[in-house]
Amino acid sequence: MTVSLPQSLVLLGAGKMGGAMLEGWLRIGMDPAGISLVDPHPSDEIVALAQEKGMALNPDAERIAPPDVLVLATKPQMLDTAAPAVQAFIHPKTLLISILAGKTLANLAARLPTANAIIRAMPNLPAAVQRGVTAAAPGPGVTAAQRALADALLGSIGRVEWLDDEGLIDAVTAVSGSGPAYVFHLVECLAAAGAAAGLPPAIAERLARATVEGAGEMLFQSPLPPATLRQNVTSPGGTTAAALDVLMADDGLKPLMVAAVSAAKRRAGELSG
Ligand SMILES: NC(=O)c1ccc[n+]([C@@H]2O[C@H](COP(=O)([O-])OP(=O)(O)OC[C@H]3O[C@@H](n4cnc5c(N)ncnc54)[C@H](OP(=O)(O)O)[C@@H]3O)[C@@H](O)[C@H]2O)c1
Questions:
Q1: How far is the CA of 39 from the centre of ligand 1 (A)?
Q2: Domains of the chain, start order
Q3: In this predicted structure, what is the pLDDT of residue 209?
Q4: Nearest one of 133, 115, 120, 110 to 73, comparing CA atoms
Q5: How far is the CA of 116 from the centre of ligand 1 (A)?
């Protein structure tokens, strides 16, 4: 399948997530000559990368070709400050992709009234190692061709899930947006449990960490559902089964995770607007 890439793109906000996406776009073959970066305080790495690859850094909007795509990756609270600069880069054919947490399509459309096509996307932290997952909700003016461009750009940092209903974004935020922190905490808990079982704490932490790394890699490589992977390593009456009896009890991990995700979803709703 051929991947469609934009000829011209402006990235507004070249921080952690913007920088990770930029690496992804270069990796999938976007022509750096078509990429412009806008950031009032670019990091030394971004300045060096722009120089090395020949990407424009902080160009005047009037001096570059109207971009096919503008990616908005500042902090959400910078939207008001950034809006005039964003407006200057938006042309009738420009697709705006926003990754600003909590900023709805309606909110973006109200602040950037000349944008005809907006996609709201929610990536997550493992984008930094190209293993992110991004949920994306297209606004009404987005064409099939623009959606294909967004799919390629967002797919450069991991998997992409398209949502018909933007209302699902708060739940997405609670599952995959905040989810990496839950997994890091799982490692902390497994390490603490190992120490409680008598292991030296440093060994317990290395074992717990490597276990989650390995299990994550198996999930990545295997087409099997997680329940099957679990069943495959659980002999009846064995040690894993003894632990899972505790974790899968009525008051085990599932109700705890449901409560945690529900709290995150509620908070995402409170912060959104
Ligand atoms: N990191 C994540 O895991 C994650 C996940 C999902 C969504 N997001 C979303 O991604 C966005 C960026 O997050 P981040 O973690 O990458 O933040 P970040 O590292 O702080 O990056 C934001 C960048 O935007 C720059 N900036 C500030 N004002 C600007 C302006 N007016 N025009 C252009 N650039 C401007 C910042 O410069 P200064 O540092 O000088 O202010 C910084 O380089 C946020 O909206 C967040 O909600 C992040």
A1: 9
A2: 9-169 (3.40.50.720), 177-271 (1.10.3730.10)
A3: 98
A4: 120
A5: 23
